[in-house]
């Protein structure tokens, strides 16, 4: 399994991608939010295609869809591959969907070419990853890995007040009757809300994804072998000063919250540049009160998003930044309140699987590099529980979460080749 695939599988994959893109709410790009009619239609479309490939199809209680190619060694653990079906608002047609279409195509090719594997292969279309509709992320893979127990569905609601539970029921899903209108050809039993449904039968997870960045394109490389997915820290920072008249308050007597916040953000940027790759730090939202042109700002609130692939360096950088913010606030006579809103640990990929991916790229004559993923992915939830690997292909101009998201057929086919060879190594080899 070291030679590139013929072109027919790549065309099959592209047809699946185009088919999925048709299930979208009106508007530019692709909008397919969790438990909407478009989402349900897309998952049912995938079930039909999986069944047509001869895979055993099932869904779990949150709507994850699986296609299973049973192995001849029933006691061996499952090799799982796939990605997420949901999108952001007005997103692209490759994010998530590419990993599902490629995984289905790879299983179909392997079955037709080599027959039954030794170890069971499964493709999965996770119900949700983005957090675009409800205030949580990884709802699909989080149930597979035990991050969620289902009780969250009672309280988590979208902007219109619809709870996850209500939205699930509208799709024929519930914790008591998890299959609803979606058919189940497997043997997994329902699990009541409040009890973990984490699977323990998964031996490896492999995810293929567009890079969503510009590194591979700028380097003119075909494949990215992900070494780790960066950990994240998110904060809300509130800076308090004194609102006062803009014309009558001397400069040296001001407690300007916006000026203090501006100095903090410049310090953040300076520190991040000094720390170097792969650390990144971003402030994506800033609110000023009272927000009028002739009043000195009395209060400012801004967000921070800080990421690094090494836990100690991430924590050290955050601590240093906060100490710097405190010094700035004290010098300017301002108050400072910092609330951590998210903390995820870095997720290193399996070194052995990463080396296998590198060998596959070499054997196929693919250009590649190892890299860190700054974006979050379903793979990070599996990394602590089973061997996990992740493959990137280039994204044009690094654009993602946009209708302009694009990867060429040649680039997508290269990722398919590498994924297929990896699944062959994991499921068909004796070792």
Automatic annotation (TrEMBL):
Keywords attached to this entry: Hydrolase
Superkingdom, taxonomy of origin: Bacteria
InterPro entries noted in UniProt: Amidase_Cbmase, Bact_exopeptidase_dim_dom, Peptidase_M20
Family, similarity comment: Belongs to the peptidase M20 family.
UniProt-recorded name of the protein: Allantoate amidohydrolase
Natural source organism: Paenibacillus borealis
């Amino acid at each position: 399994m070291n030679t590139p695939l013929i072109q027919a599988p790549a065309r099959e994959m592209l047809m699946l991608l185009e088919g999925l893109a048709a299930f979208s709410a009106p508007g530019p790009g692709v909008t397919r939010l969790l438990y909407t009619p478009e989402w349900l239609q897309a998952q049912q479309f995938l079930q039909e295609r999986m069944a047509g490939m001869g895979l055993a199809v099932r869904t779990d209680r949150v709507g994850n869809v699986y296609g299973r190619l049973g192995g001849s060694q029933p006691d061996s653990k499952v090799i799982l591959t796939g990605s997420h079906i949901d999108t952001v608002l007005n997103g692209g047609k490759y994010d998530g969907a590419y990993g599902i279409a490629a995984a289905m195509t790879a299983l179909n090719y392997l079955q037709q070419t080599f027959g039954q594997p030794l170890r069971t292969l499964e493709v999965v279309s996770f119900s949700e990853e983005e957090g675009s509709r409800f205030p949580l992320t990884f709802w699909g893979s989080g149930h597979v890995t035990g991050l969620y127990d289902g009780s969250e569905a009672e309280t988590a609601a979208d902007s219109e007040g619809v709870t996850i539970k209500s939205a699930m029921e509208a799709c024929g899903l519930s914790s008591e009757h998890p299959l609803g209108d979606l058919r189940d050809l497997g043997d997994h039993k329902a699990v009541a809300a409040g009890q973990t449904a984490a699977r323990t039968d998964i031996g490896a997870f492999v995810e293929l994804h567009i890079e969503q960045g510009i590194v591979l394109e700028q380097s003119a490389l075909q494949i990215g072998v992900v070494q780790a997915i960066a950990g994240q820290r998110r904060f809300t920072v509130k800076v308090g000063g004194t609102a006062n008249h803009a014309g009558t308050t001397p400069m040296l007597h001001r407690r300007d919250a916006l000026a203090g916040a501006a100095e903090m953000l410049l310090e953040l940027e300076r520190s991040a540049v000094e720390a170097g790759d792969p650390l990144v730090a971003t402030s994506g939202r800033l609110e000023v009160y009272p927000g009028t042109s002739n009043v000195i700002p009395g209060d400012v609130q801004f967000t921070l998003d800080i990421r690094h692939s090494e836990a100690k360096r991430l924590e050290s950088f955050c601590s240093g930044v906060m100490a710097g913010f405190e010094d700035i606030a004290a010098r300017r006579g301002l108050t400072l309140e910092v609330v951590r809103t998210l903390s995820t640990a870095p997720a290193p990929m399996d070194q052995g699987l990463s080396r296998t991916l590198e060998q596959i790229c070499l054997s196929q004559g693919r250009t590649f590099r190892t890299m860190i993923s700054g974006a979050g992915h379903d793979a990070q939830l599996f990394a602590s529980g089973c061997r996990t690997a992740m493959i990137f292909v280039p994204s044009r101009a690094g654009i993602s979460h946009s209708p302009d998201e694009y990867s060429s057929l040649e680039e997508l086919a290269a990722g398919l080749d590498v994924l297929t060879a990896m699944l062959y190594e994991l499921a068909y080899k004796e070792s």
